[in-house]
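Pilot study result, target chain (410 residues):
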Amino acid sequence: MASPVNSTYVRKTNRQKVLKQIRSSAGISRQELAERIGLTPPAISGIVRDWLTKKVLKEEGYAESGGGRRPVRLVLDGNAALVIGAELSRQQIRISITDLKGEILSQQEWNLDMSDPYVGIHEFGKKLNDFLRNSPFSNHLILGLGVAAGGLYDYQNRRIQRSVNLGKMWDNLEIVRLLEAEFSLPIRVENNAKACALAEYWLMQKEEIADLAWIHLGEGISAGLIQKGEWVRGRSNYSGELGHISLVSDGELCNCGNQGCLEAYWGWKGIKNRLHKEGFFEKSKVNMQAFRMKDWQKFLETESDLGRQMSGEMSRDVGKVASQLINLLNPSHIFLGGPTVQTLRNSLGSLLEVIQKEAFPEVARETAISVSQMTSYAGSLGGCALILREVFQNPESEIFGLLEGEPIRE
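Predicted structure:
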């Protein structure tokens, strides 16, 4: 006889399988669900009836019929719940809000000084809570907040071990505890590049590309790696520190303490340092500290000689490091993204030429390389993906429990 614990797990697993199958299809009938999942039609009907009552599913149109009455199609009702994602950087926070299907409902960017995490996270809490109270989403079920942050994230102990771009006050920071003090929501945190890779896999590619690398270009530079649908974490979840591959043995000093790192030249601090050396801030009368990534994008649109030169050099250097990634991991796809990816858009051909010259030919030919369709909000969409993945993959998660109507766990 099955124990109550086991029967509860089986019940939740079957209910989640129904949602996952419906999510992965453009619409599916009850009969098709029974065949794909391996449950009896009465069992499927009971599960579907309950999800319809909870307004997580809805009936929409008709499926093809093999004879007789056409069966009703079942689809997810995106309005059933919302998820929030946020990306934290030193001077800004970007948030995305999506529905249950991953459709973007709102995106916001706030200038907040995050160098002191205790002050910054509290201010973020006030900002987001005020925004939600005065938004059309105030009465919606929110399943959780997913947060993407640069640096080494220790997911087992739920703390940031080190973040060279957020600053020293973030070292050994119990970030989940701080966030939980601000929000009455389930909190999930991950390194920003890993979160972006998950968003590409889960939201953009709909799980069709199971092996990919996502190179995040922004305040720092790193890579999120997915193989066979799972993150490549490494021993301590610190994999993907692509920005700290050295290009010049005695080059520019990097925030990490080493010299000549890719990030020292083409992370956000490196880009601003280069502009300073070229006299850009002095000539344009622009305050270096106030210069934001969106200002950099506007500068690139002017197609100045300096902008074209820096774009070409960044393409060359990112191409060199991407070649090593290709040789090591043989990914089917590499996606380039993040707030400063615009730097590469007009010189992507140069990046591809470097890869053709420096990556092992047979391996390089198997790797598709493109700029992600996600915008500068990729990190915050990664935060959304952290929450949505649990809805459809982890039946024991408190996030799935919220969708079922269970109270939030203390």
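One observation from the pilot: Residues 118 and 178 are 7 Å apart (CA to CA). A full batch analysis is planned for the follow-on phase.
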